[in-house]
Amino acid sequence: MTETEHLGAGLLNRGVSRRSFMKYCVSLTSFMALPGSLAPVIAQTLGKARRQSVIWLSFQECTGCTESLTRSHAPAIENLIFNYISLDYHHTLQAASGEAAEAARNTAMALSSGKYLLIVDGSVPVNDRGVYSTIAGISNLQMLLTCAKDAAAIIAVGTCASFGGLPAAKPNPTGAVSVRELMHRGIIAGKPLVNISGCPPLPIAISGTLAHYLMFGRFPGLDDLGRPLAIYGNTVHERCSRLHFYEQKKFAKSFDDEGARKGWCLYELGCKGPLTHNACSTTRWNSGTSSPIESGHPCLGCSEPEFWDRGGFYENLIPEKAPAGSVAANIAESGEAVFESNCSYCHGPGPGSFRTLPEKIPELFGPEAPGVHRFNISDEELNNLVNYLKSPDKRGRL
């Protein structure tokens, strides 16, 4: 396919029928939560599109996000690379290496200045001038500065690029930060940015976002963390195949008890589905075969910020109460202990980022409360929590 050839003509020349192309456009419309009537418009727009130059930068990462991309089935990886985009630089997938690889990146940036799409995979170390991760003698930060300057837009692929991920887990010796954080600090150029979080993200989340950008020249609607609403607009819990067991209060108590064998809810085994926004439950993995929860493993919350530092993966979100009269029970009476036991996973290890006014907190608990707040704490614990968050040294919402 030539650089000037329209995508529709290129697909026909490669033996892709009009029927197959329309089927893909209908699937894409559904996945991106667009009106079904847009499918013909999408087909027409994509058919007239030219290949998009893409530069993929791999920083502090594990190659898991690339592995996810290679398992994309809508569209398949070979169609994505050879028909829809021009992947001009990618350490793992490109044939060139060494000086030839860097020359390819520089050439692509020069030929498509202001038009290329920049994909960042992995967090960026900033401590000690970024010496902890370099490519061709260039620090990740310096390479990102150079590439972001003339990019049309940026996609942060994976939780590491979106929120810091594992490299940013405490004590974060490399000073790993996300692309978004570097933009907020004014260190790199501000560009349209979308976060495709997950460890790794769903394959179709990557390819679907690329296809949306190709069609409309912009990213889809985003949530407050910069993620596509069509993928991250609901929690894993809300769309879980085990949700009816949660509503019936049927919970597995161990990985090998009767409840686990019957497919009961994994909430008490540490499932973070109620706090995790992703489409794993509906899109699934391995060409739509299954998901971690369906296969018997609780959700780890990997698409959320700081998921590595938010308690044990197999700890119940609502810990068991200590026996009355014990030392632990007396400690639990303090507002700080109530916060740490009930609020810290979702709101972070301290109340500094707590967004709700203390006076509104009582409305968040009880059987009619939304989502993860659907549990009860005592009036005394509730008062202690409110007073704790009202105290002058704890005040100050972000």
Topology diagram in text:
Elements lengths: L6 H7 L4 H14 L7 H10 L3 E7 L5 H6 L7 H8 E5 L8 H14 L5 E5 L2 E2 L8 E2 L2 E2 H10 L3 E5 H6 L12 E2 L1 H6 L8 E4 L6 H14 L12 H4 L10 H5 L10 H4 L18 H4 L43 H5 L3 H8 L1 H4 L31 H12 L8
Parallel strand pairs: 1-2, 1-3, 3-7, 7-9
Antiparallel strand pairs: 4-8, 5-6
Helix pairs in contact: 2-3, 16-18
Can you walk through the features of this model?
- The protein is of the alpha/beta class.
- Among the domains are: 51-232, Rossmann fold (3-Layer(aba) Sandwich), CATH 3.40.50.700; 327-394, no CATH class.
- Helix content is 35%, strand content 9%.
- It contains 18 helices and nine strands.
- It has helices at residues 7-13, 18-31, 39-48, 64-69, 77-84, 98-111, 140-149, 158-163, 179-184, 203-216, 229-232, 243-247, 258-261, 280-283, 327-331, 335-342, 344-347, 379-390, and strands at 52-58, 85-89, 117-121, 124-125, 134-135, 138-139, 153-157, 176-177, 193-196.
- The strands form three sheets. A five-stranded parallel sheet has the order 2-1-3-7-9, sandwiched between helices.
- α2 (18-31) crosses α3 (39-48) and α16 packs across α18 (379-390).
- The longest helix is centred in the first third of the chain and has 14 residues, at 18-31.
- It is globular.
- The chain starts with 6 loop residues before the first helix and ends in an 8-residue tail after the last helix.
